[in-house]
Amino acid sequence: MTKNIYQFSCNDNKGNEVNLNDFEGKVLLIVNTASQCGFTPQYEGLEKLQKLFPEDSFSVLAFPCNQFGGQEPGSNEEIVEFCRINYGTTFPVFSKIDVKGQDAHPLFEYLTQEKKGLLGTEGIKWNFTKFLINQKGEPVARYAPSTTPEKIETDIKSLISSQ
Question: Annotated catalytic, 83?
């Protein structure tokens, strides 16, 4: 049984494998994102969080997904460029993945099993579902798409200061 996210690897936006143990010791906010969603402006808040905390203690990890209303149709390169131009993102934006269904990435299968959604559901219902991960790689909270990054700031501060 998986105890943390460090057993997983994902492809970066250029297709290179990234082991999540590269982020060991950091608080992480893992988010499934989309460029053409009503919640897309949350990229701004995610970048503010990224800049608010020291790089060695926190990172946002964005995972673009096209499973909700086809709101992420672009290529990996187009997605990264969109994020950089429109929101000045500096956090890692990974390759597009599935976060639900039979082709769901194992990382998101693990996250949704560990942190249930509303009324105990596992499945991700929309873009910008967020998972807060502690320094041991353990999911500690799940936030709905409507929860803004600013509302998560206190939880991140608490985790970082508890180190």
Answer: no
Global pTM exceeds 0.85: yes
CATH number for position 134: 3.40.30.10
**What gap in Å lies between CA 81 and CA 77, rounded to an integer?**
6
Q: Are 86 and 119 in contact (CB under 8 A)?
A: no
DSSP run (H or E) holding 33: strand 27-33
Q: What integer best gives the mean pLDDT of the chain?
A: 94
Taking only the tens place, the pLDDT of each residue in 23-38 is 999 999 999 999 999 9
17 token code pair: 């494998």
Q: How many domains does the chain have?
A: 1
Range of the domain at 39: 5-161
